[in-house]
Every structure is written in structure tokens, then in C-alpha cells.
Amino acid sequence: MVGFEELRRPGVRVVRLLAVAACYYAAARLGLLCQLTVEGAVVTPVWPPTGVALAALLILGLGCWPGITLGAFFAVLSLTTPEPDVLGILFGNTAAPLCAALLLRRAGFRTDLSRLRDGLALVFLGALGAMLVSASVGVGVLALTGSVPPHSFWPVWLAWWVGDAMGVLLVTPLLLLLHGARRPLPLRRWKEATALAVVACALVPLAVYSSLSLLFLVYPLIIWAALRFQLVGSVLCALLTSVVATVAATDGVGAFAGLSRTEIMVKLQAFNGAMALTALLLSAVIIEQRNTRSSVEKACQELVEVLEHLTAGEAPPPRPPTEADDIDDRPWPTGTP
Asked: Cα(4)–Cα(144) distance, rounded to whole angstroms?
């Protein structure tokens, strides 16, 4: 039996790595469907593989990093013939999510995103901070090999950095929440969820494809989703809006008509970033407030029970342990060694 378990563990690890590589590659192919040209370089406004990679590291542990490298290699292989400079790009694409996971671990990040500090850590450490590594390494390698001229370095670097950061902001929270989901919505909530989905499918294309530049109309929708469905609702609405806006920007229509490619990139990334930050941080604040109110209500109930026992001359009942007592002692997932 022990021998069977020892043989089984490497097999499970290989399957996990291949699954991570497959998810990374599939996300890369989806991201490449919408491309923009900045200073002669082709970039993606949202690069989903970074979100997939960070979610895999947070869920499965740091040991799954070879799957990220393998997925990135096949993504590059599908675009061009591998050359020595590809090693630098693979290093950057692997090191950035690893740095993000390590920084989040250092900050005490919780994958349920139940606190405002978790949302802030994901934004500033996981997305804006760690993705500097992939942008700097990737564009630096392209500049050294002559693929990117010196005068185009910073525009391409900015587009690369923002695309990777948007992948973290839009994809990672959704995957973490789907992994932590334990129960479906009650039937009465499904009616409101259906209404929200219908309104989103009707309002988002109208706001994006209208020549009147009505992009601001999506913010009440995100606020509604955050208030009623927290992160799941707000992130899904933000992801839908980002996809529709990216398609419109790629085609140069609607709110992005009549703009140069650089102006389109700036407007799209500013809109996506503001929308993702609103969805993530607003939902985190709402979740934290609800958890605080629940803790206060539970403490009040326990106090009432203690007072009832003291009034009756009895010893107060022992206080049962709660999740808050040991929530800071949760082990960090390290994956299969």
C-alpha cells in the first residue's frame, strides 16, 4: 500500500502540472483572439494566462510553477519558431506570478478575499507590483534582440505591464472564488441573478458600441452586482464588460471609433483598470462589513446566553471555538512536494 502511494504521488503531480499547462495555454489562445498594435508591436489588452498562473500558485502551491513555464512555452510555440530569446520571455512569464504569490503570502493574503486588505494586496502586490517583472524582462529581451526599437520600449512596456495586470485583476479573483464555492445560490436569489445577467447582456453592448461614449453606464451595473452578489457578481460583470470592450477596441468601433491605435490602447486600459478596481475593492469592502456585522451579532447572542445563565445562577456555557480564532494560523498551500 505504501509503495502504491509512493508511485501515485509523482503521477498526481505530473497530472497537475499538465493541467496547469493546458489551462495556461487555453487562456493564452483566448487572449490572442483580441490584439492591438502599439508602436509596431502586437500586444493583448488583457492577458488571461497571468491570472490563471497566479490562481494555480495560490490554490495548488508554488510547486506547480513548471506547468506555467510549459504552458507559456507552447503558447509561444503556437506563435513563432522558438529562439534563444524565448528563454527570457518564459522566465519573465513564470517569475512574475511566482513573485506575486510570494508577495501575497508575505502580506497574509486569504484566497476567499473576505477583507479589504486582501483586495488591496491583490491589486497593488499581485497585479501592479509583481507584473513589473514580466513586462520588464519580456520587453527588455525583445529590445536587446532588436525586435522592439529603442524609441518604442516604454509604450510597449506599458501595454505589456497593463495587459498582465488586467489578467490578474479580472481572472484570478474569479478562479479563486469558483474554487472556494461551497453551495449554490438559493432559488430566490437565482431570479435576481438572472435579471442581473439579462440587464448586463443588454446594457454592456449598448454602452460599449454606442458612438455617444456611454461607458460610464456599466458602473451602476457593477455596483448592483457587488451589493447583491459580492465578488462573484461584480467580477463576472467586469469580465463580460472587459471582453466586449476589448472586441470593440480591436475593431475600432463604438466608443473607440476615430481614435489612433495608441489612443485606443490607453482608453481601453484606463477603462478596464478603473472597472476592475471598482469591482474588486467595492466587493471586498462589502464582504468585510458583512462579516463584521455577523461577528458582532454572534457575539451579542453569546453574551445574551451568558447573562441568562448567570441570572439563573448557573455557570456560563463554554464558548465554542470559531473560525476567527485560528484563521490566521491557516497553512499556506504548498502543493505536492
From this structure: 50
CA atoms within 13 A on the CB side of 158: 13
Residue with the three cell numbers 489612433: 260
**136's grid cell:** 520588464
Overall pTM > 0.90: no
CA–CA separation, 91 vs 94, rounded Å?
5
> Sorting pLDDT into bands at 50, 70 and 90, what band is 51?
very high
Mean pLDDT on 308-314: 70
